[in-house]
Amino acid sequence: MTIGGMATDLHELLRSLRVWDPQVTRLPPFDPTTAPATPLPLFTEWFAAAVAAGQTEPHTVSLATSDESGLPDVRIVMLHGADETGWSFASHAGSRKGRHLGARPYAALCFYWPVLGRQVRVRGPVASAPSEEAQGDLHARSTGALAAALTGRQSEILGSVEEMARASEAAWERARSEPATPVPSWTLYRLRPDEVEFFQGDAARRHVRLRYRSTGEEWTRELLWP
Questions:
Q1: In this structure, how many other beta carbons lie within 10 angstroms of the beta carbon of residue 130?
Q2: Contact in structure between 167 and 156 (CB atoms under 8 Å)
Q3: Which of 10, 98, 203, 217 is the most buried (most CB within 10 A)?
Q4: Nearest to residue 41, comparing CAs of 217, 199, 198, 200?
Q5: Nearest CA to 83 among 127, 35, 40, 43?
Q6: Nearest 5°: phi and psi at 175?
Q7: What angle, rounded to 10 degrees, do the helices at 143-151 and 161-177 form?
Q8: Nearest 5°: phi and psi at 154?
Q9: CA quadruple 139, 142, 146, 148: dihedral positive or negative?
Q10: SS3 217
Q11: How far is it, in rounded angstroms, from Cα 110 to Cα 49?
Q12: What share of the chain is helix, strand, coil (3-state, %, to 5)?
């Protein structure tokens, strides 16, 4: 079967695809011996490089959590910041990810920037930022971000798309008329990493993997086989 001249057989599609097509991907060299002593400066450098290279939505990241039984889950979220206190993202406390983090406050992040053949993996314990910081972060964002937060009920069962449309319209109206409206359930989470791994792809499959591990007082660096 074909749609628009393209086969829709999954196996045929998979075999036809290529990773790191040189027409759209540049694989820069990475010398791990020049890496800084701590991971944050290297993350900042790689993030800026991804932006400069035209990577689409480089601030989106896969967030992995686990429920009370230890079963994993993953979704895409947006990075809200990264500094010496950790990597930050946000959600409602009552959402699935919020409930997971309430029960098991440990998570992992994975950034993927294919335009440069790079990944960054971060994992560690997660804590909630003070409420005033979460509200400040929310209100510094767009009207749409506030409207989405005001709509609330994230991860709950939805009766119909019409129900969501009504709730969303009301939330947009309130966000426009009351831009300082607080959203008590909105939570800014901060992941303080135990490990940060940098992966640089190589055309000859000699990929470079540099892992930072925290000892509590300082970071150790080690190379991993790809």
A1: 9
A2: no
A3: 98
A4: 198
A5: 40
A6: -65, -35
A7: 130
A8: -60, 130
A9: negative
A10: coil
A11: 17
A12: 30, 30, 40
pLDDT single digits (tens) 4-37 = 556 579 999 999 998 999 999 999 999 999 999 9
**Which single residue is written with the structure tokens 């080690």?**
222
Torsion of CA 218, 62, 135, 179, to 10 degrees: 150
Give the helix/strand (H/E) hosting 110. Answer: strand 106-113
Please, which pLDDT band fits residue 1 given cuts at 50, 70 and 90? low
Please tell me the distance from the alpha carbon of residue 45 to that of residue 77, in angstroms, as a whole number.
21
pLDDT in tens, 35-64: 999 999 999 999 999 999 999 999 999 999
Q: Helices (DSSP H) in the chain: which residue ranges?
A: 10-16, 39-52, 96-103, 131-139, 143-151, 161-177
What is residue 204's three-state secondary structure? coil
Q: What angle do CA 155, 183, 125 make, to 5 degrees?
A: 65
pLDDT for residue 216: 84
Q: Is 199 helix (H, G, I), strand (E, B) or coil?
A: strand
